[in-house]
Amino acid sequence: MAHYDLRVPFVEKGIVEALKAGDKISLTGTIYTARDAAHKRIKQELEEGSFHYFPLTGAVIYYCGPTPAPPGRVIGSAGPTTSYRMDPYVSLLVQHGVKGFIGKGKRSQEVKEVLKTHGGVYLIATGGAGALLSTRILSAKVIAYPDLGPEAIFEFYVKDFPVIVGIDTHGNDIYEIGPSMWLNTLQKNPLNPSER
Fold it and tell me: 194 CB contacts (<8 Å, ≥6 apart)?
């Protein structure tokens, strides 16, 4: 498994397709937050042809509802939320050019097929590390739906934001291959009982 330092949005040809489930990535550039309530509005506006808040081509959407910024900080805790609630919106967003989604937890088989068919990736951020992840956010501003509070759409400029490829464009899923890889390693190198 490789490590990449990548710019976002993903506009460079072939970048997303080269990633493999389990690869570690440090993201630098602009990403956008959206949770359940924002996704509902995005869907409606895309269907009406009125969505205009940020360019969707190559975009990366972070499933995050950050806390308010404490004194001297850009943003408060900014950890990932559970991703499966956004599964119904992935197909529409990918068809409009979105290339990546950041969250935590498993995705549906439908999401895997959409990412495989249209060329997108699901990236995993570490749950429970929101305060640490916020230190990689250099600027943050609300760009849409301010009435939603922390569920508004934020534009984050991130530097060296750490994620792991959860699902790649070939349909490989780290939640499936990870445990089998661990078991395979354990079978080849069993733990010494005294070390358990």
Answer: none
Q: What is the pLDDT of residues 92-114, one digit of tens each?
A: 999 999 999 999 999 999 999 99
Contact assessment for residue 32 and residue 72, using Cβ atoms and an 8 Å cutoff: no
**E strand map for the chain:** 3-8, 24-33, 60-62, 100-103, 121-124, 137-144, 153-167
Closest CA to 140 of 80, 81, 67, 57: 67
Pairing of strands 137-144, 3-8: unpaired
- Taken in order of first residue, the domains within the chain and their CATH numbers are 3-195 (3.20.130.10)
Task: Identify the CA nearest to 39 among candidates 81, 9, 7.
Answer: 81
Contact 101, 60 (CB under 8 A): yes
The string over 24-62, giving b where at least 16 C-beta atoms fall within 10 Å of a residue's C-beta and e elsewhere, is ebebbbbbbbbbebbbebbeeebeeeebebbebebbbbb
Ranges of residues in the chain with a pLDDT under 70 are: 179-187, 190-196
